[in-house]
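Whiteboard transcription, Tuesday session. T.W. wrote the structure tokens on the left side:
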């Protein structure tokens, strides 16, 4: 056998780590939302276009849950066995560092996950609202057809026209959308100055407790 290059081994180990974190996140989301809601769907690794004016042409959504309570977006990180450090610079920028508990290079700077999450939420919001509007319009049309069939005096037709007129006015449906940075792997310590939408796998039930 041909020995694998060290860079290739590191890349393979990194990919395996990412896959393990995504699998762990999917299992947690499937279990929690599946137990609480009668209808829930977990979608992973979705690519959305960001528009021609954006610096990057697409954004990847690690995980998104669509359920009775709304839409929940998750940025999944594979961080493990580390303490998350967040410091503010003089100009107000958040700098994030992982302080590993083992290894020769304990401090590892990472991108601000909350900033990443905010950008992706902005990208996905129009797609979600458009889908909900089409869903409402479809069911309204189905109801209108039923009213037309049942009414011989024209009342059903007038009522269906009123329903469709109301649906046409829905430009910005009130959809609950929440977003979180999810850390599903073990051994992660979070200080108190980390935003509350950065959560460990064990803290995931708090997301649903906030709904009540």
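and on the right, the sequence the group agreed on:
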């Amino acid at each position: 056998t041909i020995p694998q290059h060290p860079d290739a081994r590191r890349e393979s180990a990194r990919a395996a780590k990412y896959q393990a974190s995504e699998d762990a996140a999917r299992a947690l989301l499937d279990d929690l939302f599946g137990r609480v809601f009668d209808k829930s769907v977990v979608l992973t690794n979705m690519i959305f276009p960001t528009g021609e004016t954006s610096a990057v042409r697409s954004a990847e959504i690690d995980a998104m849950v669509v359920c009775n309570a709304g839409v929940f977006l998750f940025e999944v990180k594979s961080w493990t066995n580390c303490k998350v450090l967040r410091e503010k610079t003089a100009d107000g920028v958040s700098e994030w560092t992982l302080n590993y508990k083992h290894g020769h290079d304990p401090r590892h700077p990472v991108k601000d996950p909350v900033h990443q999450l905010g950008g992706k939420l902005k990208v996905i919001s129009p797609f979600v609202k458009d889908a909900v509007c089409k869903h409402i319009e479809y069911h309204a049309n189905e109801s209108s057809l039923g009213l037309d069939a049942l009414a011989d005096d024209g009342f059903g037709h007038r009522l269906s026209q009123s329903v469709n007129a109301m649906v046409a006015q829905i430009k910005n449906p009130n959809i609950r959308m929440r977003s979180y940075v999810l850390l599903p792997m073990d051994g992660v310590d979070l200080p108190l100055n980390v935003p509350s939408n950065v959560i460990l796998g064990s803290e995931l039930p708090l997301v649903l407790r906030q709904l009540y």
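Someone added at the bottom: DSSP finds four helices and nine strands in the chain.
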